[in-house]
Amino acid sequence: MWFVRLIPVAVFVAFALAIGVWFAAGRSADVAMLRVPGTDNRTQEQGASAVDLAGEFVRGDGKAGNDDGLWPGFRGSSYDGISSEQGGWTAPGPAKLWEIPLGEGYAGPAVRDGRVYLLDYDATKRADVLRCIALSDGKEIWHRAYQVDVKRNHGMSRTVPAVSDKYVVTLGPRCHVLCVDRVTGDYKWGIDLVRQYRTKMPPWYAGQCPLIDIGRAIIAPGGSALMIAVDCETGKVAWETPNPRGWDMTHTSVIPMEFGGVRMYVYGGSGGVAGIDAKTGKLLWETTAWKVKIAAVPSPVPLGDGRILLTGGYDAGSMMIRLAPSGDGFKAETLWTNKPDVFGAEQQTPIFYKGNIYGVIPGGQLVCLDPETGKQKWNSGKNRFGIGPYLIAGGVIYVTSDTGTLSVIPADPQEFHLMGSAEVIPKGHECWGPMALASGKLLVRDLTRMVCLDLTKAAQ
I need a surface site. Which of 50, 65, 174, 335 has the fewest CB within 10 A? Predict the structure, then answer.
């Protein structure tokens, strides 16, 4: 979907992204207080002037290669943080293919057909910039930029684009939705959520990563509509879900799931969690048992059998709920809850893999959790990884620390074992944006730069 320490990307990217206290880094309480809403003297910047979302188009000299790898949005092809590729690791670490500078932020990349898509921010031109970059060498193929005033607020960009075979959809820091042609970059349509849906922009800007599903862009604006579906070709709204409880937009992203023969979209809003019918936009179920008081960032994690894992920071911990049929919809019941020292997530969304849950808890330890009992199977102990991103490929967890060290750990429920680590972004700073893996190439970023690593070759 990409955030600051209490909330920088949505990781994200969509990211979407939050902050917490990274004890291993020894961050002070004073620094942590600067990341609490309102204590950094930043304004919410609501009600700004209208934005021309068509903006300006610029063609570069980059060319897409023959790479056919796919990481089309927040959490990859299946929205689960798991790659179908084998990955790889050769000491002393992967070779770096290229590096490019970026505007301050935590937005993560998406990849399709040799093209990398990233929603950046150009502070000099005061513009959100959708960049299309060649995966092979990092050269820009084209970019489209629209002017919008985004003040530095622990970085600017935070979200991961959604990419289909025809379209790219982005959600900017100040809640602007943009849709363009995936190959040519031609403008299709745009929506200002604040103006059209009375969306309340979250603290530290928007971190929700958009979703493209069944040819529609799925967004949860809050305000006058809890969720909307927009036809990617025409820009027409297919349906809107009412929002009678007045839930606000959070930094979490919408996740699709199937249960009881129904495709639905699960979203954690400011007042609880809801499931929306993918065809009609009808509210199928909701629960107010789970609320994150500050900075709801990690997205819901469906386990495939009606169970959904919910996690958060700021002492929220975690909760497992289970859906059951109820009338013409469903109801959600709570199976278990955990305190944050057992399992929680400040920024990154945990991964459900081969019957186990893997995630980095507050304090920075990597944990393997039993989804049946909610108890830890193992904890990485003194090995801490900050609040950086992670994904799984070929049965291995790739996790990047805040300072740019990439570590690899087998996704083995029996024990924690560090296979290796390498500093892939020297002197990295706030490496919080979600990673992407396609065609054996791992994309990792920190606050101001992105590197492409070749997992099939070792560093020289």
Answer: 50
